[in-house]
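Changelog entry: the Phosphatidate cytidylyltransferase record was regenerated in this release. Current contents:
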Amino acid sequence: MPDRVEQTDAATPTPHVEVPAEPQAPASRAGRNLPAALAVGLGLGLSLIAILLFVPKVFIGVAGAAVGVATWEVAKRLREADVLVPRIPLLLGGQAVFWLGWPWGAKGVVGAFAATALVCMVWRLFDHGLNTAPKNFLRDTAIALFTLTWIPLLASFATLLLLEPDGNLRVLTFMILVVCSDVGGYVAGVLFGRHPMVPAISPKKSWEGFCGSLVFSVIGGLLTVTLLLEANSMIGVVLGIGLVVVATCGDLIESQIKRELGIKDMGTMLPGHGGIMDRLDSMLPSAFVSWLVLSALL
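Regenerated structure tokens:
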């Protein structure tokens, strides 16, 4: 019901005057501002394609910045829920986990991860001083290590993938397949979605959407692996199926975290999408699986 403004007069009563509601931005069935989401997604996609094709090493800097912002968003949301993860070690150590894969490969990533994990434990142990015992130490440290694994560690595989032969094309391949999965899932879900996949976690995700993701991603895998990487097309099928599974799981993991925190988005930086973390949820596990599959089969 719109708000009503009523005026009364003893001699001449006046009719109700209806005040129109403020116009709302158009939203999709997914609950998003679809034009804004498309514009932001297209802009980001074209920018990343240009970077990977012409200045691939710049991708490390762009991805590192995204990892930092995403870590900050998650840590902020956790602390709003009274989960006191150590933000400074997570931010600085997370950058070390991501960046040290460039000069030292997997050894740099593992070493930085272990060192940051230890610093997070000690930091949380003494962050209230030497005379006060920490509360919820086990819970907060475990969630801090989960965050360190979820964002910087999984993202570091994008750096390792980039450093492989034709690494820029490998990164481009995995990003195209994640987009194919998202688009296929959205189209099939909107047009045919009738059977919820996991309604307790994500009510709008359907089995029909999952099948659409599989179709789009397998086709995308066949084309990109054949045309970009000039490799056996069956590798594209394996990669396409694998990325749909882990991208869907990544999306569900973030959905459950947001459900427990009682929030819709991790941030507000990207109109129509939410925060940076809301765009990375499916990309992060996909980077690891892409590195694993392409390193083993190419």
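The chain has a mean pLDDT of 88.
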